[in-house]
Amino acid sequence: MEHIGNYFIAFVEAGGLFAPLLFISFHLLRPLLFIPVIFICITGGVLFGAVAGSLYSVIGITLSSILFYGMIRWMPGTFKKLGTVKEKMLGKHTTVTTSQITILRLIPFIHFHLLSLCLIEMTADFKDYTKSTFISSIPFVFIYTTIGEWLSSLSFIHVALFAIALLPILYLVRKKEVIIKWHDFFNNGAKEKAHLSIDR
pLDDT band at residue 191, thresholds of 50, 70 and 90? Predict the structure, then answer.
């Protein structure tokens, strides 16, 4: 990865005025090259600084997610496979919010586009998906662009502790709704009706 990083930095630096465009294009090519998104964000901070690097990464990630949205619609088989992986990781009936996805993006070993799939399933349309993607990417990009190099040097134990520390926050920003089974709902309704009849 270090050699790839050196080539990547050298290539972007050689772009001169077009360096930001080359950097953003790497975000689009990242899934094909199997480069971790965190690595590109860290590189953005090194090349352009925290502010510009964050801006370029947010643009790149949003465009990459839009490309993913378009491709997944044309490949229903891949959509189904990713859906199966999502069910194994998060549960079949688990619903997540944009706030939860924002926090989950901070955990390095969770697949980036798996969370994009969650956004596709929970949003109403393309416009809503793009807006949610943009919002959920900002904290992730800012953290890994500014202090990503330091975070990448942490051991697996420290990363695991960081992930565990995020769990209470995930619980607090969960979707607060109560799911009642049809059987329980109608049984309770019948009991309440009977109770009202007795009172009369």
Answer: very low
**Please, are residues 40 and 54 in contact by the beta-carbon 8 Å criterion?**
no
Of 43-47, 52-56, 90-94, 191-195, highest mean pLDDT = 52-56
Q: Compute the residue count for the chain.
A: 200
Gap between the Cα atoms of 125 and 60, Å rounded: 21
Q: 147-169 burial, b for 16+ CB within 10 Å, e for fewer?
A: ebeebeeeeeeeeeeebeeeeee
Output the CA angle 83-88-94, nearest 5 degrees. Answer: 75
Q: Domain segments of the chain: what residues?
A: 2-199
What is the pTM (predicted TM-score) of this model? 0.70
Q: Does residue 164 register a pLDDT over 60?
A: yes
